Amino acid sequence: MKEFDQKITKSILTGVQPSGVITLGNYIGAIKQMVRMQDEFKSYIFIADMHAITIPQDPASLHKNIRSLVALYLACGIDPNKNIIFIQSENEYHANISWLLECNTPFGELSRMTQFKDKSSKNVNFYAGLFTYPVLMAADILAYDVDYVPVGIDQKQHVELARNIAERFNKKYGETFKIPDAYITKSGTKIMDLVNPDKKMSKSSANQKGVIYILDDLKVIQKKIMSATTDSECLIKYDPENKPGISNLINICVALTGKKVEEIERDFAGKNYGEFKKYVANIVTTEISSIQKRYYDIINSSTLDKILDENIKITREIAKNKFMLMKEKMGLYK
Ligand code: AMP
Ligand code: TRP
């Protein structure tokens, strides 16, 4: 069985919803951070497909997206020897634990979740799963006794709920769960839309020209960068307020090359925007091209299934033990 590095003692767990595509913004702002964290923590990463179905999904695309996202994470540098990456729905103990937790979660507390209020107000028809979603998230977290849960600020309330649920359960039935802390990830550099550099680059943007997808054709990526919005000054200088377009391109270079802003400004002193964009396009396509190569190798190989099979066994064992312990504490038959 796979062992974590013995020197690493603290653990993290994070779930990502399978949305099908990831952008350069996701890669720089989130995935690269996860890649860095894998050297410091025992880390569990899973595709939160059961959370995804709390809103209607097309089954065929969902099925494809789940596997594709695992392959993308691996292609982006998530190391299967350092992380336990798995698919949430393949481990039935998450839902089992969730039910036991639901029976210990006050309705009123769940009603206060702002994400539920927000999502339910936008849809006329919504389902019970949208309401109980945070309890499933608590189950995901509490099953593994992790120390930290890296999440964006929008998920902080859900982690707090998980802590409350765990504290209450421990008090009522005796020590069962470790109390986790939210680890609020400051989004790395925020990458902006190439057409509208005042707006964050987002997969749901109406204008695709401003968004670089990791699986975009390299020529398309080049074109998107060459036609990125800039300004009329012809000066390569970092000034997000007055020169958001150029500053965004500089940020992309800094994130992908590790160079300093001043270095880039110096290298491009006196040069024009066309030359700079060509340089940026070259950096981005070089990085993305190697991710794509790894992605297509992984998605078409049996290694992916082997990794998932091995990991699901490990996580089922852990979550099953927690489920059995909970049943025992609650007076159910094992
Ligand atoms: P989302 O795609 O909005 O579900 O976000 C998934 C993760 O990627 C979150 O941690 C975001 O903070 C991060 N992220 C999304 N878009 C960007 C962006 N344009 N720049 C930096 N980070 C981003
Ligand atoms: N709800 C999280 C999101 O939408 C995904 C998620 C599910 C998660 N379970 C989790 C994140 C457990 C951290 C820990 O982004």
Plain-language structure description:
There is one protein chain. This protein is mainly alpha-helical. The protein has two domains: 208 residues, HUPs (Rossmann fold, 3-Layer(aba) Sandwich); 88 residues, Tyrosyl-Transfer RNA Synthetase. Helices cover 53% and strands 7% of the residues. The chain contains 13 helices and five strands. The strands form two sheets. The chain has a three-stranded parallel sheet. A two-stranded parallel sheet has the order 4-5. α8 links the parallel β4 and β5. α3 crosses α12 and α7 packs across α8. The longest helix has 29 residues. It is elongated. The site of tryptophan has 12 residues, from β1, α7 and β4.
Q: Which key features would you list for this structure?
A:
334 residues; mainly alpha; Rossmann fold; Tyrosyl-Transfer RNA Synthetase; 2 domains; 3-stranded parallel β-sheet; two-stranded parallel sheet; elongated; binds adenosine monophosphate; binds tryptophan
